[in-house]
Amino acid sequence: MSVPLFVYVLKIGQKIKKDKENNMTALQNRLSLLLMAGLLFAFSGLAMADDLRLITEKSFAVSKGEKLKAESYSGDIKVSAWEKDEVAVKIYGDERAEKIMEFYIEKSNGGVMVKIKKEGKSNNWFGKTGTIRVEIRVPASFDVTATTAGGDISINGVSGELRLNTAGGDIKTTGGTGELKANTAGGDIIVKEFNGDVKMSTAGGDIRSEKVRGDVDASTAGGDINLQCADGKVNASTSGGDIRIDFSGNYYGIKASTTGGDVAVRVPKSIRADIYASTFSGDIDCEFDISNTNKYGNAKAEGSVNGGGEKLKCTTTGGDIKIAVK
Fold first, then answer.
1. Do the Cβ atoms of 89 and 82 come closer than 8 Å?
2. Is 35 in a helix, a strand, or coil?
3. How far apart are the two ends of the chain, measured CA to CA in Å?
4. Whole-number Å distance between alpha carbons of 204 and 223
5. DSSP states of 265-313 as a string?
6. What is the DSSP string of 101-136?
7. What is the widest separation between alpha-carbon atoms in the chain?
8. Contact 103/91 with Cβ under 8 angstroms?
9. What is the tally of helices (H) and strands (E) in the chain?
10. Which of 77, 149, 222, 249 has its CA 20 to 30 A from that of 132?
């Protein structure tokens, strides 16, 4: 007995609907599994960080003029100030790190040396090294050089000559005076409440400063620059982001250059400066009443402010320029 056509079509429709429902349920199940896996991975990472145990520790009495030098094959380095004339070092790690890494903490006439490296000839960059964290306390006035090939660097409240380098992490400093040089190949740089000259460079992240007094030099190949600074010369350059500068105090010149973003600069109304602004495909907005002005459409403007002085130069290839007063 033949099945009527409309019944056949109805059955096909019901089968398609059921297949769709089954497929949707399967997709929802897959998404749920992926979400659960992601959460488990995140929590396992936190658990691993919390499970780090103290591998070794040492402390030394130190004198003025000595310095700390810390080098780690991988892992984070945290240095913070205290009121003691003493350097205290603690190295934490997991079981694998303890097995394959060598740990040195030594005192010499020049200061304290901390070094972490792979054992023997297994010093290749692609093997698993485990997880490491280095925590160091130093006197409030102490020179610090810290280098890690695979982690973050954090400095808190230390004054002196600070040299910070990481190949794969972020750099953050809070407080202190002196001279700071920070370089990372793959992360962000944040400097807060520092009095002194600062030089920051990153190949793949953002740069931010807050309440910095002194000369500021900031460069990034692939991120934004946001500077809050005072009483110094400012130089900011990026190949692929925006630049924002909020400047106060004694003016010694500002240069801001980006290839693919906007530039926004805010300065005191009283500064004496020669202004030059140029953009290839954007607009220029300047709140100063510039004398001796040469303006070429929306692409270029130059002139002097309050009789002229140090340069205020803003250039971008593909964005807008805003110069504001406060």
1. no
2. helix
3. 91
4. 6
5. EEE-TT--EEEEEEESSS-EEE-S--EEEEEETTTEEEEEETT--EEEE
6. EEEEEEEETTEEEEEEEESTT---SSS----EEEEE
7. 104
8. yes
9. 2, 25
10. 222
What are φ and ψ of residue 291, in 5° steps?
Answer: -90, 160
- Strand 189-192 and strand 195-202: the pairing is unpaired
Instruction: Render pLDDT for 196-241 as a digit per residue (tens, 0 to 9).
Output: 999 999 998 999 999 999 999 999 998 999 999 999 999 999 998 9
107 by Cβ neighbours in 10 Å (0-12 / 13-18 / 19+) ranks as middle
CB neighbours of residue 69 within 10 Å: 17
Look at the block and give the residue holding tokens 């340069």: 311
List pLDDT tens digits, range 276-322. 999 988 999 999 987 555 555 558 888 999 999 999 999 999 899 99
